[in-house]
Amino acid sequence: MESKITNYSVPTEYQSELGKMNILGFWIFIAAEIILFATLFALYGVYHNRTAEGPTGPEVFVIRDVMIQTILLLTSSFTCGYVITSLRKGNVKSANIWIGITLLFGLGFLVMEINEFIHYAHAGLTIQTSAFGSSLLTLLGTHGAHVTFGVVWAILLAIQLVQRGITPITASKVHIWSIYWHFLDVVWIFIFTFVYLGGLM
Amino acid sequence: MDIKWDQILIIEEPIMFWTFIGLIVSTIGLVAGLTYFKKWGWLWNEWLTSTDAKKVGIMYITLGIVMLVRGGIDALMMKYQTSVPENTFLSAQHFNEVFSAHGTIMIFFMAMPVIFGIMNLIVPLQIGARDVAFPKLNLLGFWITASAAILYNIAFLVGGSPDAGWTSYFPLAGKEFTPGIGNNYYYIAIQISGFGSMIVAINFMVTILKMRAPGMGLFKMPMFTWTTLITCLIMIIAFPIFTIALLAGMLDRIFGAHFFTVADGGLDMMWANLFWLWAHPEVYIVILPAFGIISEVVATFSKKRLYGYHSMVWAVIVISVFSLLVWVHHFYTMGVGPTVNSIFSITTLAIAVPTGIKLFNWLFTMRKGRIVFEQPMLWALAFIPTFLVGGVTGVMLGMASADFQYHNTLFLVAHFHYTLVGGVVYAVFAAFYYWWPKFFGFKLNHKLGNWHFWLFNIGFNLTFLPMFFLGLDGAARRMYTYSAETGFAPLYMLSFIGTLIIAAGVTIFVINIVYSTLKEKRITERDVWGTGRTLEWMVPTPVPAYNFAVIPKVEAIDEFWHRKQTGKEFVNEKEIKDIHMPSHSWLPAYIGLAFFISGFLFVWEFQALAIASLALPFLGMAINSFQYDDGFYIPAKEVIETERKDRGEQQWKAK
């Protein structure tokens, strides 16, 4: 088993060759994810007025709830930054606490999103209603599935931090997760802007 | 769920029945053979769980060859059906299934695995690396591709084969016009194989960017490595688009969504756009590495440095950019108007320029070279005119106004077979003959190779040249039969005879592999052909698990050639240390199986169960997260012994 980090003059996540390669690989993966979401946005852009017999966006969007979702997710991105700061200071305990706080915000976001889907279903908008419904719910659902994946992932990493402490490998793993988490936040900003604000304009 | 349970096993027709029996007998034979010779442990430990890129590569290629046979049999069936007018060998429905399977299998489960296999074998060696960046992920890529291939291949017996073509256009492919579950296999199996391709793209991109030997700048990389890098880049841009297209198609079919349906706001042509946004780059994903292979072979057997190396690299980069800007040329007839069609016509024609640069560079490499007519070079020489025909007819098809005449005819089919067979398959055969001895320690037999080469070439041209004329005469593609009055019969028959000759060629190739394995002289020279230029020829033959005893310091393009010229030694024994190797892993096999199970449940439309089963592959990822494996070391003593083996006959220094 590899040793814990003692030198904190270099960022913890860049202290092993494997860690460096993993981070580059993950950035390339993020590039693919950007294309993936861009395609979903393109579909939504084409379909957002094709509502068939079903409700339109402004008829079902609840801007107050979406605002709360946005605040929850943006705050979680902020607390996620503290996870990395704690790592670089070598403080496992504080890193885990910040992971916990981040996940609470993340879970709050997911609960709100599930509520939102239930609300849409009651308002008569499901994936089967219209092309608008299909593209909207696929875009939101893909983002939500990513957030869920991020929550489970972070729990697994927190356990490893407790088991092993801050090593070059655990540090790069947590760093990669944080890239992912911030990325989901960026995607949400686009969703908020183009789907909700754009829909209400 | 509206599945008819009597459709589970489709064996009413005699062909199906006998195929089914044949599959069962051969599976029992395989299992019995492995058990009798006590090879299960060997198969599992040495191959299926091996993270060695070379073994992963060989497994990829094996998968590709098996699929080549499957797709080839499909081709023979189609050609036999159309060899005479009003033939009743296949029904219309059956013919649809066969051409869909042929296209899908040849692209996803033959061409791509073989190309990935060659990348796995060659790229680490060419850049002076001991392995790829992520060995376990690499094995996972293979397993995902393999499980997707198996899932797709069971379709024709269990539930019905997809029958909407390899392009699977909506609305035909939707539930409305293709009920039943058969078409689900397309969306799900291809989705799974796409994950495998993404893994390959990320892995090789990081490998090439991060693991090159010291001194090897980007512009000192061998051409095959360059083309792999650019291919990975295209895959990263193009595949996510297809992921979403397939997801949307699956949601339409299984969950009642309305992305591509005609009713409720869907747009059927959206599928065509998304599909070709991926599928046009896809043909470059398989042809660019083929260009790389040809560049290596032509330079080696002309005993000259590749002419115009830099222009070659830039041509590949330009092609990769244009590849993403031409997708509409696949459906000029959609009717988007002259302006849009003109733009896409121009971008399409523009691709001919960098491709032309490449062709001229190969010709100039050969000019005044001392050409050696070994097997790989024969294929490279045949590649050039064949691919040229494919390219020129591509330019014809690229002209929007003229395309209305060629659209959906056999002219198009002939064109893309001239590029994909005349391009990719010829290059892959060149690669087989070229690199085979490096990994197995013997060459493939020359005489049988000649038979393979000539039969395949004659057969190929006999099959596809008539199809240009059939197409110009108005023979539409994908028609299961035609009347005698059309006058198509003689050319169709000629085409069928050509297919038989191709089949004979491929059979001789397979025989050659078996014959050479048993009979050919074993060799241990590092520089197998005597004219090797790049680093893969500097390691012992067959390549040891660790690739390079000492990571070389690179000074020039064609480093190995440079060392032979300057008399610099290949390996300094004093620098040999213990070598770190990655451990074997069972997890990729598990995750492959998990994807297969999950995919199967999706195909059969058990919606809730299928979604729950997605936990299976994620469970594998979670287990992986907790595995901290440090690998193992090969002791320096063992390395030195391996390196010394060829000393007696090997020229360590250049003459």
At CATH level 3, the topology of the largest domain in chain B is Cytochrome C Oxidase, Chain A
Backbone shape of chain B:
globular
Q: Give the termini distance of chain A in whole angstroms.
A: 57 Å
- Give the rounded overall mean pLDDT of chain A: 92
Strand content of chain B: under 5%
Are there runs of chain B of 5+ residues with pLDDT below 50, and where?
648-655
Low-confidence stretches of chain A: none
Largest sheet of chain B: 2 strands, antiparallel
In short:
Chain B: Belongs to the heme-copper respiratory oxidase family. By secondary structure, chain A is an all-alpha fold. Chain A has helices spanning 17-47, 57-60, 63-89, 92-122, 131-164, 168-200.
List keywords for this structure.
heterodimer; A: mainly alpha; Four Helix Bundle (Hemerythrin (Met), subunit A); B: 655 residues; mainly alpha; Cytochrome C Oxidase, Chain A; 2 domains; 1% strand; globular
Provide structural commentary.
The complex is a heterodimer of chains A (201) and B (655). Chain A has a domain at 62-124 and 143-200: Cytochrome c oxidase, subunit III, four-helix bundle (Four Helix Bundle (Hemerythrin (Met), subunit A)). Chain A has six helices and no strands. Chain A has helices at 17-47, 57-60, 63-89, 92-122, 131-164, 168-200. In chain A, helix 1 (17-47) runs antiparallel to helix 5 (131-164) and helix 1 (17-47) packs parallel to helix 6. The longest helix of chain A is centred in the last third of the chain and has 34 residues, at 131-164. In chain A, 39% of the residues are buried. Chain B folds into two domains: 1-266, Up-down Bundle (Cytochrome C Oxidase, Chain A); 289-523, Cytochrome c oxidase-like, subunit I domain (Cytochrome C Oxidase, Chain A). Chain B contains 20 helices and two strands. Chain B has helices spanning 14-36, 40-48, 53-81, 92-126, 135-154, 184-210, 223-255, 268-302, 309-323, 338-366, 375-398, 400-406, 410-440, 446-472, 489-519, 559-566, 587-603, 607-613, 615-626, 636-644; strands at residues 579-581, 632-634. In chain B, strands 1-2 form a two-stranded antiparallel ribbon.
